From TrEMBL:
Keywords: DNA integration, DNA recombination, DNA-binding. Belongs to the 'phage' integrase family. One of its GO terms (biological process) is DNA recombination. Gene3D superfamilies: 1.10.150.130, Integrase, DNA-binding domain (3.30.160.390), Intergrase catalytic core (1.10.443.10). PANTHER family: PROPHAGE INTEGRASE, PROPHAGE INTEGRASE INTS-RELATED. It comes from Sphingobium limneticum. The keyword Glycoprotein does not apply. SUPFAM superfamilies: DNA breaking-rejoining enzymes. The keyword DNA-binding applies. One of its GO terms (molecular function) is DNA binding. This is DUF4102 domain-containing protein. InterPro entries: DNA_brk_join_enz, Integrase-like_cat_sf, Integrase_catalytic, Integrase_DNA-bd_sf, Integrase_DNA_bind_dom, Integrase_recombinase_N, Phage_int_M, Phage_Integrase. Residues 202-397 form the Tyr recombinase domain.
Amino acid sequence: MLSDAKVRAAKPRPKSYKLTDTNRLFLLVTPSGGKLWRWNYSYDGKQKTMAFGAWPQVGLADARAKRDEASGHLMEGDDPTILRKLKVVAKLEAGRQTFERVARAWHENARSQWAIVHAADIIRSLERDVFPAIGDMPIAQLTPPLVLSVLREIEARGAIETAKRVRQRISAVFIYGIAEGIATSDPAEKLGAVLKPLRKGRQPAITDLVPLRRMIRTAEEDYARPVTRLALRLLALTAVRPSELRGAQWDEFEDLNGSEPLWRIPAWRMKGDADRKDELHGDHLVPITPQALAVLRAVWPLTGEGPLVFPSNRHAHRPMSENAIGYLLNRAGYHGHHVPHGFRAAFSTIMNEWAEREGKEHDRKVIDLMLAHVPTGKVEGAYNRAAYMPRRRELAMAWANMLSDGLSAPSVLLDLPAKAMGPQSRRRVPPPVDIEFRFPTRRRSSAKVVAR
């Protein structure tokens, strides 16, 4: 029977020799001085030898523990050498079964039950928010804290609803993995209870300038029709209501080639009751800044031949879908955090804070005018909607300068893809207008194109 002292004292000889321990365990000492643990056993009438490693990395006690474990497998009728090989193969395969690999297999398996757009949104959310963090990790090694850290990153940018949706998708991947024998548990299952709750009440909006610009950049880089991207940009710059933007007609814009371009939204298209819509001189006046004018120049080659600035993709005589901009924000990861109407809250909050620092006495009233809000105590019909126009232009310019800092030029948005495209794509975008372009003069139409 061996002891630690005997193992240490063993010296090399010209030929290899054995020092035996109990239950057929022995130490093989080689001429070069190596000391290797071996164990002889019989299986299916054949004599076999199993290696347990080299001393001193594997000590005597460890070698005996390995022998006892292998002997236990042998008593159960298993060949311990074969079991070891199977474990190695299983571990290698488990290492190859990364979360991203399993997630893509789950997505491919389930995509037939989803609409094409929804299926693309699901895989894009995983590619954006999950794969960079845990995509290359073996799915079987993921733990609740690791998954929660991914969801906390999404919450940190304010996308509370997106975090909840991504948790559901991660959980679905684990359920698929369990069914396939790749995973044994779902670490995302119970995490819904510790995520931040959704805010109720007012429509969600980002009201801090830097995150707002980041959100616009992220949304504009996502897949969307150029018209939708440009509509998002003009909505942010003008802070009009989404329905007012969608129904915008080219003949509502005045002096686009002059020094004081203006968007005159007719009273009948504004929010309000019948008296508001029939009000004489009740049009809402929106100063057009150079940044907003650049959007109109960019969209002109796409829609300038028709009456609507932002028409439907399928029907040029109808406004774009009321969901188009909202879906773009959702795909960009801002579901539940910012909606198209939220640009009005962002404009109000940021500009009122700016007015406190750098503005003039009546700027709060001017900001309300720009949002088409009627001050308390005013009668609709007696309210001067054209008041403070010079100051409104100044505030619109201040807002456009702050908002546009770091954003791409509107013309750049034309070249971004509407969807994933292969090398043989035949998509062609009309060339942008040149620097000498002049908007043609249009007569104002009396026809009403209602944004449904």
